[in-house]
Amino acid sequence: MIDSQEWEEVKRQLPFGTRTQASVVRHSGFGFFVQLAAFPDVTAVVDGISYLPDGKMARRTEWPKAGELIEGVVVDHVEHNHEIKLRVEPT
What we know:
With 91 residues, the protein is mainly beta. The chain has one helix spanning 4-13, and strands at residues 19-27, 31-36, 43-51, 69-78, 83-88. A five-stranded mixed barrel has the order 1-2-3-5-4.
């Protein structure tokens, strides 16, 4: 996990609404973890209900596989564990 000073810099560079690229690391029961291109040490997640590539919630079988590149929008900064939440929606 990154320290508080690094976290403040991440939030400054990735404010809400910022589009960013990430690669899928692994799936979980609620969504999937991704690695941000610009901040590889920051934990980032896409909740399953926030994966809307066609404008509607995708089935788990339609989630991108590990290693796939996605583009998402920053929708939350989770303070207690320094985590970025992304939403994937049609461009």
